[in-house]
Amino acid sequence: MSYLAHSANDADQPHPLADHLQAVAELAADFAAAWGGEPEARIAGLLHDLGKYGDLFQRRLKGLERGIDHWTPGAWEALVRYRSEGIAPALAIQGHHRGLRRATEDGLREMDPHGWDERHPEGPRLSDDNTEGLLGRGLSEGLEPDAEIGAGGASVLSGPDAAAMLGIRMLFSALVDADFLNTEGHFGGDAHGLRYRESGPALEPQRASQVLADHLQRLAASSPATPEVNEMRAQLLAACLAASERPPGLFTLTAPTGSGKTLALLAFALRHAALHGLRRVVVVIPYLTIVEQTVKVYREALADWPDDQARLLYVLEDHSLASAGRDSSGGDEQDARARLLAENWDAPVVVTTSVQMLESLFANRPGACRKLHRVARSVVLFDEVQTLPTRLAVPTLAALSHLSARYGTTVVFSTATQPAFGRLDEAVRRHCGSGWRPQEIAPATLGLSERSRRTVVHWPDDSLNRLSWRALADRLAECPQALCIVNLKRHALALFGELRHRGQPGLFHLSTSMCPAHRSATLSKVRERLEARESCVLVSTQCVEAGVDVDFPEVFRAWGPLDAIAQAAGRCNRNGRLPAMGAVHVFLPDEPGRAYPDGAYEQGADVTGALLRERGAAGLDIHDPEVYEAYYRDLYGVRGVGERGQRSPLLEALARRDFAEVAREYRIIPQNAINVVVPYDMEAFAALDKEVERTGLTREWVLRARPHTVSLFRPQREGLITGLLEEVTVGRRCEPSGDWFIYRGEEGDYSQETGLSAPSTMPLWHS
C-alpha cells in the first residue's frame, strides 16, 4: 500500500508520505543548522506526520473520515524513543497544527495514546494508537530515524523558563516552516514534481555596506543641518562602525533625536554581519508610521543596488499596512512574492513592528512562530525601546538575552531615552540564565547628549498652576509655528475646537481617531507648511512622538512621563537650524476627570513629578543620562518590576511552561480593540464596502482596508455604538469576523479635520 501525506494537487499528482517526511526533516535540519539543532529538527521532521500512516487518516484523505489527530502518535514516539532528548521534538510535533501546549510532565503524559478515547470523548480520534506499528510502516518505506539525538532535553522541564520555552519555539519554527514550504511546494507542483517558492535574495553585507557608505557620503554633502549637527552625525556613524567589530551580543545605542541613528544603525548591522557571518537584519519599531518612514529611508539608501530584482525585495516590510508601502515598480508578481517572503522573513532586511517581533517570541501558534528560526544568527535592531511596557520588560529581556547567548543573534536597543534595563539583570538571569548586560555603542567621550542640546525645557512652576484650553490657545496663537501634544483624544478635540473657533490659520489636528491614510496626509501638509515657513499649529496626541519626522520651533507638552516629554522635545529644533534654542513648554491642563490614558502612564507622570520636586527644574535635565537612570530606577520601584517574588499572570504562565497561556498574556497592545473602516476617502470606502459585501473578509481586503481603518475599544453589544457598526463576515461562510466592522453612521461623523467623531452620548469613542 502507498501512504499519502496530502491529497492530489491540481496536476493530479499524489504526495507520498515518505517523501514528505524526508523532505521536511532535511529542510527543518537545514533551518536549525544556524544554532546546531539539526538532530532535533531532523527527528521532528521525520516523525511529525507519523500518524498519517494510520488507516483512519488515509481514509480521511478519501473523504471517508473526519476529526483525525495525526500529530500525537509522532510526538509520543519521539518521547518513547528518545526519552528526555525527545521532549522538545515531541512538543514541536504535538503543536505543529494546533499550537504548542505545556512543557510539563502532565503535558507530556497527555501525548500517551493509551486511554486516549477515555480522555478525549469529544474527539479528535487518533489515527492509530499503535505507534510502533506506524513507525514500522515508515521504516518499510525507507524512513531511518537517528539512533540518538544528543541534546540536553531535561532542561526543557527544569531549566530557566523563558530560555527553555524559547528553545522549543525555535525548533517548532524550523519544523512548521519546513512543513508549510513542502506542502506548498506539493500543491503548487505539476507533473515534473514539487515547485518550491523562490528564496529571497542574500544579504551580501559587504556589498550593501559599500552602497550605504556611498549614499551616506552624498547625504552629508547635501545636508541642510548645521555643521555642528553634521559633525555629530559623522562621529556617531564612526562609533557604530567601530562597534561593529565587537563579537555578537547585546548592545545599546543611546543617541539623541536627529543624530542620524537610523542609518548609522543600519551601517553597524551590515558591517557587523559581514565581519561575523550573520544572515539578516531585522529592524523592530513600535509604530506603523515610523516603520513606513524607516522603510522609505532604507530603500532610498540602497537604491543603487546593482541587481534590480534583488533590490525590490531587499528591504521587506512586514506589518498590517505593508501592501500600501511596497515599491509598486516591480508589478503584481513582485508584490505577491514579497507577501510570501513576509510569511517567514526570508529577506535580507526585514522592517517590522514590536507587536510582530515580540509577540512571535512568546507565541504558540504555527503561523506566528514560523519566522522565528530566521532570527538566529542575525542582527536585531530595536528602535524607540522606551515604548516597551514595563510589565513585559523582564520576560522580554530574558527571551532576547537567550536569543543572543544561545542562537548567536546580536540585539541592539536604540533610543534617545534609554531605559535602565541593566537594573533588571538579576531578574532576567532568573528566567534565562544569561542576564542583561549590554555594551553601549556610543562612547561617553562623544558627549552626544550635551552636543544635541537644541532645546530648553520650561517646567511648570507649581502643580496648582494649571492652564485652561482657552489660556493655552492664547499662547499658541502667539506662535507662528507650534506643536502641542496632549495625553487624551478628548483633550486634543477641546483645544483644537478652541483654536478653530478663533480662526487660527494653518491649524491641524492629529490623533488615532484619524485613519492612517488621513494621518499621513495631514503630516505631509504640516511638513510642507513648516518648510515654507508658513503659519502652522498642530494639536496632537502622543501619536506624533517617537520617530515622526517633524521640526517645530516651539513645542507645548501636557504633563506626562519623562520619556514622553523628552520624545516631544525631539520634535523641536530637530535639525538645529534656529539661531537660539527651541522652546519646550510643559504644562498642566486645567481639565476635570481622567488625565492619562492608563494607570501605567499615570505612574510615569507621577514619578516625573516626584523627580521635579526633588531636583528642581534645573536638576531635571532631559539631556542628562543620569536623570533617566533615576527616573527608571524609581519607576521600576513603584511598579515592583524585577523584584524577587513579583507575580503576574504572565510570569505565572512562564513558570508553568504553559505556551498557550503565555501567548494570551504577552500582549504589547491589549486585545480589546476592533477595526472600523471609515469614510475618510469616500471612493476608497465605497470600493471596500462593495468588495467585502461580495467576497467577505479576505487577507487581500484587509491589506487594502488598513489605511482606512480606525481602532476603537470593543463596545458592549448593547452599547449605543453597536447600532452604527456593521460586522464584516469571513470569506463566503458568512461567519462574523469578530473584530472588523464597516462604519454605518452619518457621513459627517468622520471629519476631514479630526477623524471619527461621535455624539456626546458616546464618550467611549474619545477616551
Brief write-up:
The chain has 4 domains: 4-187, Hypothetical protein af1432 (Orthogonal Bundle), CATH 1.10.3210; 205-444, P-loop containing nucleotide triphosphate hydrolases (Rossmann fold); 454-591, 3-Layer(aba) Sandwich (Rossmann fold); 673-766, no CATH class. The protein contains 32 helices and 23 strands. A 7-stranded parallel beta sheet has the order 7-8-6-9-10-5-11, sandwiched between helices. The chain has a 6-stranded parallel beta sheet with strand order 12-17-16-13-15-14, sandwiched between helices.
Sum up the structure in keywords.
767 residues, alpha/beta, Hypothetical protein af1432, Rossmann fold, 4 domains, 7-stranded parallel beta sheet, 6-stranded parallel beta sheet, 32 helices, 46% helix, 13% strand, disordered C terminus
Q: Provide the spatial order of strands within the biggest beta sheet.
A: 7-8-6-9-10-5-11
Residues in helices, as a percent range: 40-55%
Mean pLDDT: 89
Query: In whole angstroms, how far apart are the ends?
Result: 65 Å
Radius of gyration: 28 Å
* CATH evolutionary superfamily of the largest domain: P-loop containing nucleotide triphosphate hydrolases
Q: Which term fits the overall shape?
A: globular
CATH architectural designation of the largest domain:
3-Layer(aba) Sandwich
Structural class determined from secondary elements: alpha/beta
CATH topology of the largest domain: Rossmann fold
What is the domain total for the residues?
4
* CATH class descriptor name of the largest domain: Alpha Beta
Q: What fraction of residues sit in β-strands?
A: 5-15%
Number of continuous helical runs: 32
Q: How many beta-strand runs?
A: 23
